[in-house]
């Protein structure tokens, strides 16, 4: 059965553009896979605990030698890694907060990056899986804009997802999402709407392309 792992991390609920676009991707993917399964995690509504020493170091201890505390602490990491390993495709909503990703998404990454299993090995158990990242932002960080170079999310995610986990990463970037909220940005509403519409179209086309591959 085809499986999609769908992760949202925006705190804006129904007002979230990244959630809108990941849903468009999900709906298009399900249209191509009517018998498919979706594993969904809303990291804002149900945040994961920050990784601690027990769970961080437990993978380095042979399973038969782990203490009950180590095993219990590692169980969540194993569950999250298995979800990623089971997925045929992944879509992640990653809005830009304070120039980087939400801490809830960082916690998910900290749990699923397991050295010698999903990461730091040529034989990563998730290598090659297609992941589509919707990295929305309230303003614009495009070349030539005043905020150029201050986006610390996309480069980070490219390295962590593509370099460490060895996933096949594709980005969709809706910009200017605050244009209808911030009065000073009212002159950018048309550009914001165009960027939003383009993001939805890219999500639909990306989902269809993955189904055909």
Automatic annotation (TrEMBL):
InterPro entries hit by this protein: Flavodoxin_fold, Flavoprotein-like_sf, FMN-dep_NADH:Q_OxRdtase_AzoR1, NADH:quinone_OxRdtase_FMN_depd
Family: Belongs to the azoreductase type 1 family.
Organism: Streptomyces carpaticus
UniProt subunit comment: Homodimer.
Protein name per the record: FMN dependent NADH:quinone oxidoreductase
Cofactor details (free text): Binds 1 FMN per subunit.
Named cofactor requirement(s): FMN
Binding-site residues for FMN, renumbered to this chain: 10, 16-18, 136-139
HAMAP family: Azoreductase_type1
Superkingdom of origin organism: Bacteria
Catalytic reaction(s) noted: 2 a quinone + NADH + H(+) = 2 a 1,4-benzosemiquinone + NAD(+); N,N-dimethyl-1,4-phenylenediamine + anthranilate + 2 NAD(+) = 2-(4-dimethylaminophenyl)diazenylbenzoate + 2 NADH + 2 H(+)
Annotated keywords: Flavoprotein, FMN, NAD, Oxidoreductase
EC id: 1.6.5.-, 1.7.1.17
Chain ranges of the Flavodoxin-like fold domain: 3-162
Keyword field contains NAD: yes
Gene name of this polypeptide: azoR
Function: Also exhibits azoreductase activity. Catalyzes the reductive cleavage of the azo bond in aromatic azo compounds to the corresponding amines. Quinone reductase that provides resistance to thiol-specific stress caused by electrophilic quinones.
Pfam families (UniProt xref): Flavodoxin_2 (PF02525)
């Amino acid at each position: 059965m085809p499986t999609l792992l769908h992760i949202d991390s925006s705190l804006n609920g129904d007002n979230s553009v990244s959630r809108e676009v990941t849903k468009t991707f999900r709906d298009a993917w399900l249209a191509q896979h009517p018998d498919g399964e979706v594993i969904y995690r809303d990291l804002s509504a149900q945040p994961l605990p920050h990784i601690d020493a027990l769970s961080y170091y437990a993978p380095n201890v042979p399973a038969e030698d782990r203490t009950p505390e180590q095993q219990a602490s590692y169980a969540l990491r194993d569950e999250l890694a298995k979800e990623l390993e089971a997925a045929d495709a992944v879509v992640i909503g990653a809005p830009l907060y304070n120039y980087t990703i939400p801490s809830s998404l960082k916690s998910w990454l900290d749990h699923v990056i397991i050295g010698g299993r999903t990461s730091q090995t040529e034989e990563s158990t998730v290598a090659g899986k297609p992941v589509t990242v919707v990295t929305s932002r309230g303003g614009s960080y495009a070349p030539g804009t005043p905020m150029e170079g201050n986006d610390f999310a996309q480069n980070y995610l490219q390295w962590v997802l593509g370099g460490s986990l060895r996933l096949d990463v594709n980005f969709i970037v809706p910009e200017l999402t605050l244009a209808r909220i911030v009065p000073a940005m009212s002159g950018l509403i048309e550009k914001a709407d165009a960027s939003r519409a383009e993001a939805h179209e890219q999500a639909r086309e990306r989902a269809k392309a993955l189904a055909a591959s």
